[in-house]
């Protein structure tokens, strides 16, 4: 395998594994050996389900705006904000009036996200 196969572009997500999380939230997933990246596109005012998983998660809001719901708190996030979600903490997101583009990093990689599908992972 050429090392070029390990390079991607946020504007061309077709190389990723496609997953519809819920209406208005779509992810393109790029798994590695120990971690994975999920590029999540959120339509304006779309609401993600509150969920949790054992993997830790780091996220960065690349563009748009949103409300991050984490551990029962609602926190406004804007372009450039990033945050940590420990494994087992309930969380979700609501897209702002501009929608949002978020990069999620999971460690370890989420096994159930290594294949296309719909919905959030099941425990």
How are the SSEs ordered, and which strands pair?
Elements (H helix, E strand, L loop, with lengths): L16 E6 L2 E7 L4 E7 L13 E15 L2 E6 L3 E4 L5 E17 L9 E2 L5
Parallel strand pairs: 1-8
Antiparallel strand pairs: 1-2, 2-3, 3-7, 4-5, 4-6, 4-7
Following the backbone from N to C, one meets helices and strands in this order, namely EEEEEEEE
Strand content: over 45%
Shape: globular
The gyration radius over C-alpha positions equals 14 Å
Q: What is the residue-mean pLDDT, rounded to a whole number?
A: 94
User: Got a strand count?
Assistant: 8
Tell me the structural class. Answer: mainly beta
Fraction of residues in H or I helices: under 10%
| Major beta sheet summary | 8 strands, mixed
Give the distance, in angstroms, between the N- and C-terminal Cα atoms.
Answer: 33 Å
Number of helices: 0
Unreliable stretches (pLDDT < 50, length at least 5) are none
Quaternary status of these chains? single chain
Structural notes for this entry:
By secondary structure, the chain is mainly β. Helix content is 0%, strand content 52%. It has no helices and eight strands. Strands 1, 2, 3, 4, 5, 6, 7 and 8 form an eight-stranded mixed sheet that branches. The chain is globular.
